[in-house]
Amino acid sequence: MSVNQQGYQVMDERNQQKQLLRARGICVVIPTYNNAGTIVQVAQSTLAFCDDVIVVNDGSTDATTSLLQDLEGITLVHYTRNRGKGYALRQGFQKARELGFAYAITLDADGQHYPEHIADFLRANQEHPGALIIGSRKLEGIQRSKGSDFANAFSNFWFWVQTGRRLSDTQTGYRLYPIKKLHGLALLTSRYEAELELLVFSSWHGVELVEIPIEVYYPPMEERVSHFRPAADFTRISILNTVLCFLAVVYGLPLRLLRFLGVWGRTLFSLLFFLVAWVLVMPFMWLDVKIMPFAQETKREHVRQMMSGFARLVMMYMGIPGTRFSYKKPENLSFDQPRIVICNHQSHLDLMCQLVFSHKLTFLTNDWVWNSPLYGFLIHQAEYYPVSEGLEEMLPKLRSLVERGYSICVFPEGTRSKDCRIGRFHQGAFYLAEQMGLEVLPMYLYGPGRVLPKKTYHLNKGPVYIEVGEPITQSQLLAMGDHRQQASHMRRHYLQHYAEICNRIEQEV
Question: Structure pTM?
């Protein structure tokens, strides 16, 4: 690859990163005070990685003000009196929210932070939406004052005392904040210890804290600009930690307890709701199937209708407290027409999310679902079939369902995702579509894997969203190639569309 080609590739990657940062509502906030020697270089370097840069001029008295006024591409927040880093951050967050951003990456104006790490913060934000991402500095071999080392260790210790959580670097200024979830901004102190307060209040309110490693640059001691005043600042920090320790007992600890009770209370309520509803509904289903003088197909129709109604009750109304369920589907789409329905697979809740739309859906399931002592009876009556039977053996049964107006739902990944990512698609759904001459109807799920993750036993708060796409005809499928190519093509489509859904929803998480 030539030098020019490498340059174009780098530019393309950076442009994609900038677009993704904007799509996820991420900007950069740079507070500055008397950094005339570095602020232009820092801002311009940051603009190479992010188009949305807010610089907060905290009452600088040197050439910083005039330099910033001539700098293109930034959003400038300026006030004449120096108020401190805490105040500058608060002003930067306020401006970011006014501009519609959900997250703000903060970095220092003295040149110690590398803007290249913005890509690392972006990846961490995608893996941990809604989290406060902390850039933990690699300080080995870097010459720092004894006061700075002590201040970091001092801050780390008191953070652990106040929150019960350990962090390796509570003094770093390179962070990504979920600005819609920040607490205690009105109480924030004006100086640099405000960054510790933001961590403490976020921890008390259950915001996920994630550390990522970052490189830092410290110029020679004689060239550094420091606004740290050892005696006054340590006195102020000691007073602040005394106050925070008191608040940790009367405010932080009760919040942690309420959050713990909320998680398990929510789980217990949902379990009891499910069991009570099951106890109330199951006898009617059993009587309908075993006693009532209806035709077998009519009985099965009743079972499917009751299962769909139960799914709507759970997902749309009162089954899972703290869950915001929403959906989207084409206005003119009817589920009366049989299709092969494909959907990404995240959680035990996925079937109920799909059944919200119609009772005329039947599923290919795993063996443990088919053999479940709790609801295996219903699975059999609804004519859901285990994939272990093999597609060829199931074809006659599935054809019968299609002839009676039912769609066949398949999870192409074959199993639930551990981390909500889209796994490899198998070919079975596309083979069935070809064999029966059916359209493929894509559904896209977001959230069940976060509300009820794989291999966990408690329910979390969060949004659950399901979207129905446009049907894909046989001619469109054939244009993609054979079954393997169809599976690969649709997986790429799911990766792209699921990312778009994540970018939109995770600005509100």
Answer: 0.88
